[in-house]
Amino acid sequence: MPPLKIALAAILVFGAPAGAAMAETKTAFDFGQPITSADLQRYLSIPPNGAGLPPGHGDASQGRMVYEEKCAACHGEKLEGISETGAPALIGGRGTLVTAKPFKTVESYWPYATTVFDYVRRAMPFNAPGSLTGDEVYAATAYVLARGKIISESQVMDASSLPEVEMPNLRGFILDPRPR
Amino acid sequence: MSNYRKIQAEDCPCREGMFPRGKVSRRGLLFAVGSTVGVSSASLVRPALAAALSAPPGSIHYDVAADPTKEQGRPTFEDGGYGSRSQFETAVRLLAPNPNPNTTFTPLADLLGNITPSGLHFERHHAGIPVIDPAKHSLVIHGLVGTPKRFTMADIRRMPSVTRKHFIECSGNTLSGWTGQMEKTVQASHGLLSTSEWTGVLFSEFAKQVGLKPEGTWVLAEGSDGAVMTRSIPMEKMLRDAILAYGQNGEAIRPEQGYPLRLVLPGYEGNTHIKWIQSLQVSGAPFMSREETSKYTDLMPDGVAWEFVFEMDAKSVITFPSGAMRLPGPGFYEITGLAWSGRGRISGVEVSTDGGATWQKADLEGIPEPICTIRFKLPWMWDGKPRVLLSRCADETGYVQPIRKQLVEQRGVNAFYHYNGIQAWGVGPDGSVSNAAA
């Protein structure tokens, strides 16, 4: 028998017991550990229907205090944005999207108020992301929306009112129409 | 975009290389600074230390041997077991001068072959680069799944893996093309593009572990940096080829690229490749996060914006000769560059050396891989006359890279993202190469 065939025969013979042992092991990987809803508190994102919005509330007058203390240094006293800090304007620009110089802000461009809440809660203020309380986020959101004349100065933002806010540019988006 | 203009005004590292323009080179400048320090404050800084400090990033300074054949070289393992590049190599990422530094460009003109060295991969951060201990990091998959689960990095490393080469391109790459503004170098114009060999676990493997509910049509990916950045991804894409990657170019993924774990979505705009990923939430609709509404949407002339514009269309660019280089004189040159498509393999590249009057088929370096860059080449005899060099590519879907006019006619000039027009480089009679738009 040529050496190669001997070697193959040896693999076949001695390979059999190893194969039998393999068959007794688990076939499913079963990786990962189950988690509870309590573990998921930190991961909750807020979609436009407001699912997962936390307790709490705030209006524009409360929001003004939050804004002046924690937002104005970068975004400007008048929410006008400051180029030196890189923080964009938050209001203004309605009607500019069809012009040569579109001015995109929360007021003129953002389609959902829930996005403002979600983003401020997770990423703002820039020097201390994720540090605002639920009440502070509702209040700061209410302040930006009120200054953008999207809600009234007295309107309270909470888990039920925030998803009801209709943003000026809600219908300003279409799905990517390029051919697939 | 005024920020990008500033880049042009500053001395850019990519002016160095094969044909510097005769200005003081960065290396020369660094050594000059080093010797000045050594002379003027000899009591404070020893000349050797000054020289060591002058070594380009990623390298270590060693004294140059008068004749390397007449002495022993430096000892093996003096580097502790992890090597560095030559002290004579100076290519670095280019920092965009934003108020909060958050973007760097890959020096495409300095790259060889097809893979971007990990240390030169472009960056776009939203809250800096977090330091994450892999022993404490995990990926949670929840929402519309059978069993929500947490996967530690140890779990993920045990799962069946794939290794695939893909480019990642920021959809803001070449955005100056929309306005016709002309970046001086290919690094500034096209440098938000990099290619790596990624290693990790397909999302479909994770799906088997948690079980998917049929109504789960979108997946929200979330990072664990200070921006806790989120993007909604169609489930169809996640199951097709999404990779939870922990490896890059044969070693652990770099911190700037998402260590210990990032999402790789072949062909999708770079912003969706969530770095430092900590969570995947399966849902029945997109979440409309800040990134996917206020930012990565393409505004059309009628005031309506395209949203969820994911695939990066086919694009190519000549990297040699390219902006701010100077050809030393008439004669032979090998034109070379990169072509890529987010929709599949590149099927061909053509090059014009006469401003688009005639086109020649370029040679592709190797076999095109799906959703990966490929290097192209064309031998060229420069006759010393002014020339305009162009490249255009096609992908396996039959799509051909457009000219700027076609893009602007369809999308106006304020789309900001997803510009993929043909790039032109002009060669002057003195050999100087400059951006000629297209």
Structural write-up:
The complex is a heterodimer of chains A (180) and B (438). Chain A is mainly α. Chain A has five helices and four strands. Chain A has a domain of 102 residues: Cytochrome c-like domain (Cytochrome Bc1 Complex, Chain D, domain 2, Orthogonal Bundle). In chain A, 34% of the residues lie in helices and 5% in strands. The N terminus of chain A is likely disordered. Chain B is an alpha+beta fold and 438 residues long. Chain B folds into three domains: 102 residues, no CATH class; 184 residues, Oxidoreductase, molybdopterin-binding domain (Sulfite Oxidase, Chain A, domain 2, Alpha-Beta Complex); 123 residues, Immunoglobulin-like. Chain B contains ten helices and 24 strands. Chain B has a five-stranded mixed sheet with strand order 5-4-13-8-9. In chain B, strand 1 and strand 2 form a beta hairpin. In chain B, helix 2 packs antiparallel against helix 3. Chain B is globular, with a radius of gyration of 23 Å. Chain B starts with a helix and ends with a strand. Strand 1 of chain A pairs antiparallel with strand 5 of chain B, so a sheet runs across the interface.
Oligomeric description of these chains = heterodimer
| Name of the top-level CATH class of the largest domain in chain B | Alpha Beta
Strand-residue proportion of chain A: 5-15%
Percent range for helical residues of chain A? 25-40%
Using the alpha-carbon principal axes, give the shape of chain A. globular
Structural class of chain B: alpha+beta
Mean pLDDT of chain A: 88
Could you say what the CATH architecture of the largest domain in chain B is? Alpha-Beta Complex
Main sheet record of chain B: 5 strands, mixed
Distinct helical segment count of chain B: 10
How many DSSP-defined strands of chain B? 24
The helical percent of chain B reads 10-25%
Q: CATH homologous superfamily of the domain at 56-89 and 97-164 in chain A - what is it? A: Cytochrome c-like domain
